[in-house]
Amino acid sequence: MIIKNIKKIKKICVSYSGGLDTSVAIKWMFDKGIKIFAYYANIDNIKNKKLKEIKNKALKYGAYKFKMFNLKKKIAKEAIKVIKYNAFNVFSGKEKYYNTTPISRFVITKKFVKEMKKDNINIWSDGSTYKGNDIERFYLYSLKINKKIRIYKPWLDKNFIKDVGGGRKEMIKYLKKKNILYSKEKKNYSIDSNILGNTYEGENLENLNSYLSKKHFEYKKKYKNKICSITFKKGVPVMYNNKKIKNIVNFVIEINKIAGGYSIGISDQIENRILGIKSRGVYESPFMELMSILYERLANCIHNEESLNLYRENSYKLGIILYKGMWLSNEAIMIKSMLNVFSKRINGKIKFTFEKNKVKILSTYSKFSLYNKKNISMEKVKNENFNYKDRIGYLNIKKLSLN
């Protein structure tokens, strides 16, 4: 249920980003006499000093209570599942969008809605706008997790928009009228970040004749010729450079740093938002791209053609489902169940290195591999598994299917 009348709200949970939109929303609701619990998701590599500033800002704008949740581990674990399922979206040539923001929205909502019960709060709010995807993702997940939850969206409230204005300049003026100076951070784009990577939208990217002027991950020659290896067990990376992966968050950060240093995982996409309108985003996801490449390498070695076709067909559907905020839907559960069977055989080790914008595979090993050098060798082979006579018989049968 979406609440349209702010007067009925006594207590509310605001998913606080630390940015201008949710800061203004907190101030506006505080002035209406609402008791505000500001929940903040720590999902990126933010220093403690910055985290304290975010807390102080929420309290300054009128939050009754501030709660911070470290969700980096949960996001990393969910990302591994997404890689197993190959649940990505928006394909342009070889480039993919790895659904990094949809992953975080699911994790954040799941945690916040459950935490709200502990604080005896039944109304949820966030700063997503009516044009974007997040407004629908947060809405669907919150209702799926708690059917009795009520939802208030400031950017769907005409009174809120009337009071604070429709843009960033107007919101800063609104705070100034309230004797609050907003220290505007210099940002070239609207950036959404978590430990999996970054999403850039807005500003000059809204023009299709321009490109991203500044990236987080830049090519660094200092990582030149670094040779790495990753071992998978049942589709999950378990060893990195022959050492057990004990801390999944540190593993993600390390891979992002190294792979990002070779400009791996950068894609520029024109996509269909959930509404059907076109938008443009530039994405950086070094970890996701590397893991996807390695997982697919093993999958191609281990599974036959029919299994791979089913895997790709259904993983594509699942990627769209995740993008649309339906990760908990019945159809998602059905597809995940099938892909879990597929991933159980993804066991093996890959050794690789990097070149600029490229992952170079050095060796691939799996005890389940269907690859057999004897079957495809161009040299004379003893004790062949099949010979030219077998192929003649196969071709004679094949011709029977011709019209």
TrEMBL record:
The EC category is ligase
GO cellular component terms, alphabetically, are: cytoplasm
Domain Arginosuccinate synthase C-terminal as annotated: residue spans: 189-401
Q: Does the keyword ATP-binding apply?
A: yes
EC number(s) per entry: 6.3.4.5
Task: Please give the pathway this protein is involved in.
Answer: Amino-acid biosynthesis; L-arginine biosynthesis; L-arginine from L-ornithine and carbamoyl phosphate: step 2/3
Gene Ontology terms, MF aspect: argininosuccinate synthase activity; ATP binding
Taxonomy, superkingdom? Bacteria
Which keywords accompany this UniProt record?
Amino-acid biosynthesis, Arginine biosynthesis, ATP-binding, Ligase, Nucleotide-binding
Q: Which InterPro entries match?
A: Arginosuc_syn_C, Arginosuc_syn_N, Arginosuc_synth, Arginosuc_synth_CS, AS_cat/multimer_dom_body, Rossmann-like_a/b/a_fold
Please give the Gene3D superfamilies that the UniProt record associates with this protein: Argininosuccinate synthetase, chain A, domain 2 (3.90.1260.10), HUPs (3.40.50.620)
Question: Start and end of every Arginosuccinate synthase-like N-terminal domain?
Answer: 11-180
Among the Pfam families in the record, one is Arginosuc_synth
Q: Which GO terms describe its biological process?
A: argininosuccinate metabolic process; L-arginine biosynthetic process; urea cycle
Checking PANTHER family in the record gives:
ARGININOSUCCINATE SYNTHASE (PTHR11587)
Name of the protein described by the UniProt record? argininosuccinate synthase
Origin species, per record, is Candidatus Vidania fulgoroideorum
